[in-house]
């Protein structure tokens, strides 16, 4: 589904992405882990189209998307959620998701009818919010949602774009234990229907959800494989997991 | 729109409708002209609000379109064309074309660059206006004859007043619909959070450009009316001081609201008129007042009356 | 169109570029370091011109006028910053534009109240009002030559401060990453006030130099300010080097354009047509140049910020 070849991105003297090769198979949940500063967000940024790599190629569903910007990739089914919550604070949760639905339903050069009342946008939005667990909070202003609820909204918006691949950048960032467990449960159901690339620090979530894990350290992939193999890998333990994992 | 706001609008419109006969009864025709001027400039403010208030594009060159609209009337009249509908059409089309050209270059930038670039392009038009001696250059030109519109005689101050009122209301309503449509939502979403908008699949550029053109055309319409109002067309209509004035009308009233630009225009121009009656040097008072309003008065007048549109 | 004439206009262009640079340097630093759009920068230009004219008349000495112009504008700049403008650093550009717009109205009217709306006559000091002979055979006003020299000195001085002193290092750091510099514990408030004050003083200096050449009148600052914006857009925000390059380019293009476009166009079209088209095109030239630069490098030629 997603193929990355020799991806390189430098910022001045820093090689944030140092020649990464990665394959994500359709239907799998592929986790990317690594210490802070390893370049995970830079990598995700290049996958999503926010950053342009210096060299290398990214192929999505057979199409070379390296030169495409984020909106074009989103329209082709490559959706992302942000590590630092990025929603529309002055709109309600429902309208936030409705906007994502709108983005995927043709062009928006319609100037007359009120979009925020269109049932063709609001109904799917409500359904997605129900799925994510925010159904009852749909009328609440996004800025007034709790942090955990906003993280859920992030995922909901990514879902609303009818993605073929979900790039989830630390969806559980800043969440408490209970909320995290709920999110893990929800992601578990998502797994069945979507291909997911999951960047996470929460090892519990990673080992519960991932089919395969890739480990990123200083911009390079030092290991990639099944969870048990990664857990046992001495380099990974030294660099990241620590000896007690 | 909520019931409360609708009532507010109806009340305001009724007052505006009733003003001319009342003012005539008190023998104060000057104020009919003043309110008419305010309403025409309110159209310009409404158009700027579309791209500035809702779109987040700080275009400092919006007065250019007032100038283009006014000069359209003047130049066509210069060559003997007095058909008002032709005037309005040319005013809007010319403004739209210029807006397209300026927007295509400027909207690729953002932030400070965008402000300075829109300002620079407007100044360019201003110098163009000055240097073409044919149409009066620096001194400007007098209208040979006002636009001939079948439906209203612009030489009759009261008919012109009601025409301006109707056009203003149409502009307000059109903007209201645009802003709540799918198109408007993309614009507002891009202002609210551009990264998020791109991530769900919106490319802001085409929408912003179209909004810029619409705003330009609407302002051109205001310009055509304004030229008829002043009966004298000078490049100072396109000056950046005029652009700044329009921006203040939008801000003072409260951005991203339907009533905001109208309230702001009334507030600013009535204030200016009041101060000017006091002293010739009224700008020395207005300046600090504006500074204070920016520092302390963040959400504008509309923010006092009700919460912003969601 | 002799070589002597072209060379003379070239010198004029450089001299105009010097004045643009003096204003652009201050403005671009304030923009780059404090992320503050100051529309009233042109007001400092105007204040400098007026203070110098007034002080020279009152004292009879140009040097006293010069000092009054520079120091007076420095004071006005610092006062503006401390009283009103520093509250706006955290606000968005729109608020800053509007507030400084209000400041322009205030200063323009204040100047009109004190000195009236008519243009004041300012003359260069007697020891600079002669001419010097150029190698081309023509004569060139000493005062304009002096401006060129002064500009060079100031440019060198700024270069030295920005690249060789600790203050300059802070300025450059601030231009690339403001929050970092603040986080390092540097007295940001003082730094900002100094930068703002110096920027204002430079603008005032440009104004007093401009006095004898252009008109001293209310609103004089705004006319040149927009060209200063063009300089900054072309040169890149936050970069003194960009300001210098941009200023020279704009100064030369604008001056040569105004001088030679009309006669040039008269060779390919009728004289009356060139009469209109020449000046019209000349006045649009630098904006077209700006659009061209933006098409290829939207961040300007030497942007201070990285990617």
Question: Can you walk through the features of this model?
Answer:
The complex is a heterotrimer of chains A (245), B (310) and C (307). By secondary structure, chain A is α/β, with parallel strands linked by helices. Chain A folds into two domains: 1-77 and 163-245, P-loop containing nucleotide triphosphate hydrolases (Rossmann fold), CATH 3.40.50; 88-161, no CATH class. Helices cover 38% and strands 24% of the residues of chain A. Chain A has helices spanning 40-48, 70-75, 93-103, 119-132, 147-160, 177-193, 203-209, 227-232, 234-241, and strands spanning 2-11, 14-24, 29-33, 55-60, 63-64, 78-81, 165-169, 195-199, 212-217, 220-225. In chain A, the strands form two sheets. Chain A has a six-stranded mixed sheet, sandwiched between helices. In chain A, helix 3 runs parallel beside helix 5 and helix 4 (119-132) crosses helix 5 (147-160). Chain A is globular. With 310 residues, chain B is mainly α. In chain B, helix 2 (29-54) packs across helix 10 (240-253), helix 2 crosses helix 11 and helix 3 packs antiparallel against helix 4 (84-106). Chain B starts with a helix and ends in a 5-residue tail after the last helix. Chain C has a two-stranded antiparallel ribbon with strand order 1-2. Chain C has eleven helices and two strands, in the order ααααββααααααα. Chain C has one domain (3-129, 140-296): ABC transporter involved in vitamin B12 uptake, BtuC, CATH 1.10.3470. The interface between B and C is large, with 42 and 47 residues.
What is the mean pLDDT of chain B?
87
Order of helices and strands of chain B: HHHHHEHHHHEHHHH
Q: Give the radius of gyration of chain C.
A: 20 Å
* Mean pLDDT, all residues of chain C: 85
How are strands sequenced across the largest beta sheet of chain B? 1-2
Second CATH tier, the architecture of chain C: Orthogonal Bundle
Are there runs of chain C of 5+ residues with pLDDT below 50, and where?
none
Number of helices of chain C: 11
Overall shape of chain B: it is: globular
Q: What is the terminal-to-terminal distance of chain B?
A: 10 Å
Q: What order do the helices and strands of chain C follow? A: HHHHEEHHHHHHH
Backbone structural class of chain B: mainly alpha
CATH topology grouping of chain C: ABC transporter involved in vitamin B12 uptake, BtuC
Overall outline of chain C? globular
User: What fraction of the residues of chain B are assigned to beta strands by DSSP?
Assistant: under 5%
> Over the alpha carbons, how many angstroms does the gyration radius of chain B reach?
19 Å
Indicate the multimeric state.
heterotrimer
Extended strand count of chain B: 2
The number of E-state strands of chain C comes to: 2
> Number of helix segments of chain B?
13
End-to-end distance of chain C: 45 Å
């Amino acid at each position: 589904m997603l193929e990355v070849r020799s991806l390189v991105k430098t910022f001045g003297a820093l090689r944030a992405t140092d020649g990464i090769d990665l394959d994500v198979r359709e239907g799998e949940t592929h986790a990317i882990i690594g210490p802070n500063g390893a370049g995970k967000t830079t990598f995700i940024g290049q996958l999503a189209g926010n950053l342009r790599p210096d060299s290398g190629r990214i192929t999505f569903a057979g199409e070379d998307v390296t030169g495409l910007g984020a909106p074009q990739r989103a329209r082709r089914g490559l959706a992302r959620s942000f590590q630092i919550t990025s929603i529309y604070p002055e709109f309600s949760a429902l309208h936030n998701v409705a906007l994502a639905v709108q983005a995927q339903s043709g062009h928006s050069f319609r100037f007359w009818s009120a979009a925020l009342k269109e049932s063709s946008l609001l109904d799917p939005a409500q359904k997605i919010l129900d799925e994510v667990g925010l159904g009852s909070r749909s009328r609440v202003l996004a800025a007034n949602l709790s942090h955990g609820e906003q993280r859920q909204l992030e995922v909901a918006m990514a879902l609303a774009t009818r993605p073929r691949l979900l790039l989830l950048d630390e969806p559980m960032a800043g969440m408490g234990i209970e909320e995290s467990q709920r999110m893990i449960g929800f992601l578990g159901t998502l797994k069945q229907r979507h291909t997911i690339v999951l960047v996470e620090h929460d090892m519990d979530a990673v080992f519960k959800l991932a089919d395969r894990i890739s480990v990123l350290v200083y911009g390079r992939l030092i290991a990639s494989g099944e969870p048990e193999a990664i857990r046992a890998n001495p380099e990974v333990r030294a660099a990241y997991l620590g000896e007690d994992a | 729109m909520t019931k409360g706001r609708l009532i507010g609008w109806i009340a305001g419109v009724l007052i505006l409708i009733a003003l001319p006969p009342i003012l005539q009864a008190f023998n104060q025709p000057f104020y009919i002209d003043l309110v008419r001027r305010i309403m025409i400039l309110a159209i310009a403010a409404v158009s700027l609000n579309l791209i500035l208030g809702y779109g987040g594009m700080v275009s400092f060159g919006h007065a250019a379109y007032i100038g283009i609209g006014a000069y359209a009337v003047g130049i066509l009249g210069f060559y003997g064309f007095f058909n008002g509908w032709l005037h309005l059409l040319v005013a809007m089309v010319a403004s739209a074309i210029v807006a397209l050209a300026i927007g295509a270059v400027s909207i690729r930038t953002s932030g400070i660059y965008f402000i300075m670039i829109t300002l620079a392009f407007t100044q360019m038009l201003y110098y163009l206006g000055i240097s073409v001696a044919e149409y009066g250059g620096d001194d400007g030109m007098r209208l040979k004859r006002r636009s001939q519109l079948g439906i209203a005689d612009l030489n009759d101050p009261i008919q012109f007043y009601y025409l301006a009122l109707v056009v203003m209301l149409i502009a307000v309503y059109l903007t209201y619909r645009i802003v709540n449509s799918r198109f408007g939502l993309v614009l507002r979403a891009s202002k609210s959070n551009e990264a998020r908008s791109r991530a769900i699949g919106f490319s802001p550029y085409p929408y912003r450009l179209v909004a810029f053109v619409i705003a330009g055309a609407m302002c051109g319409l205001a310009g055509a009316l304004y030229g008829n109002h002043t009966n004298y067309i000078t490049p100072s209509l396109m000056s950046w001081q005029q652009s700044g004035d329009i921006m203040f009308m939008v801000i003072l009233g409260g951005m991203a609201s339907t009533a905001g630009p109208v309230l702001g225009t009334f507030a600013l121009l009535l204030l200016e008129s009041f101060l000017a009656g006091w002293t010739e040097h009224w700008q020395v008072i207005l300046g600090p007042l504006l500074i204070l309003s920016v520092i302390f008065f963040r959400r504008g007048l509309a923010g006092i009356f009700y919460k912003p549109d969601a | 169109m002799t070589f002597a004439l072209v060379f003379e206009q070239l010198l004029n262009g450089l001299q105009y570029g010097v004045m643009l640079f003096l204003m652009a340097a201050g403005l671009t630093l304030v923009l780059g370091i404090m992320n503050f759009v100051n529309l009233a920068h042109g007001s400092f230009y105007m204040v400098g011109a007026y203070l110098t004219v007034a002080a020279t008349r009152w004292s009879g000495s140009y040097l006293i006028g010069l000092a009054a112009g520079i120091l007076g504008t420095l004071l006005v700049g610092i006062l503006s910053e401390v009283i009103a403008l520093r509250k706006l650093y955290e606000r968005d550009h729109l608020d800053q534009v509007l507030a400084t717009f209000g400041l322009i109205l205030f200063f323009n009217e204040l100047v009109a109240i004190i000195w009236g709306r008519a243009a004041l006559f300012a003359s260069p000091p007697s020891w600079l009002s002669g001419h010097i002979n150029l190698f081309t055979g023509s004569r060139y006003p000493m005062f304009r030559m002096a401006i060129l020299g002064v500009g060079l000195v100031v440019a060198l001085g700024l270069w030295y401060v920005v690249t060789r002193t600790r203050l300059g290092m802070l300025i450059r750091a601030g231009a690339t990453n403001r929050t970092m510099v603040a986080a390092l514990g540097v007295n940001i408030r003082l730094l900002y006030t100094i930068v703002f004050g110096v920027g204002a003083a430079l603008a005032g200096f440009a104004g007093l130099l401009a006095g004898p050449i252009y008109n001293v009148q209310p609103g004089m600052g705004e006319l040149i300010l927009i060209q200063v914006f063009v300089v900054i857009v072309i040169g890149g925000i936050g970069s003194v080097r960009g300001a210098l390059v941009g200023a020279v380019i704009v100064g030369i293009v604008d001056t040569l354009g105004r001088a030679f476009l009309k006669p040039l166009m008269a060779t390919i079209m009728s004289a009356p047509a060139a009469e209109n088209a020449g000046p019209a095109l000349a006045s649009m030239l630098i904006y077209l140049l700006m659009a061209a630069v933006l098409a290829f490098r939207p961040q300007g030629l030497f942007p201070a910020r990285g990617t």
